[in-house]
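Entry 14. Structure prediction run on the chain below.
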Amino acid sequence: QVSLEDGTTIDADLLLVAVGRGPSTDGMGYDEQGVAMDRGWVLVDERLRTNLPGVFAVGDITPGLQLAHRGFQHGIFVAEEIAGEAPMPIPDINIPRVTYCEPEVASVGLTEVESIEAHGADNITTYEYNLGGNGKSQILATAGFIKLVQLTDGPVIGIHMVGSRLGEQVGEAQLIVNWEAHPTDVASLIHAHPTQNEAMGEAHLALAGKPLHAHA
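Output returned:
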């Protein structure tokens, strides 16, 4: 049994204690060379530049998401930056995030709460598509949902999913968010049936006012 700060209790069979991780930069000589640090993190700007000219830092030693694919992209970004190709930076909030459990949890972009804080409640529209309306999810016997967060009459700025294997759908989700697509842009595309990817299309169809296989 776990007691929360507000006095409520939760009964469960298992408890996962996730204490987090930190950078392993002690003894690397960064401080001695004058690199700006914060509790072991190497501080960088949006172009991954440190405070020292010509010195960049990438991946888990920089503050932010500690994800392998973030580190890969950081390395590519810096190589292109040095080559003078002026790559476009991707903010951490628009990097795909997946929790590999059962069911999986996948997300990209702003949550509803973050969107309301940034833009105001009157400017945010959300829609939650129940996987009960998705044929492939029924075959896989998984429950779950895909939640869309939209700037009202504007682009989709967040996509959040729960369900078996839904981490595989975060690729399209990041394209939608990073390319600032509107629900109608995605609704006009054809998603194969029966696939879980179809649920992504159905969610946008519904948000565009054209629901097909909706499930209450």
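The chain has two domains: 37-89, 93-207.
Filed with the rest of this week's runs.
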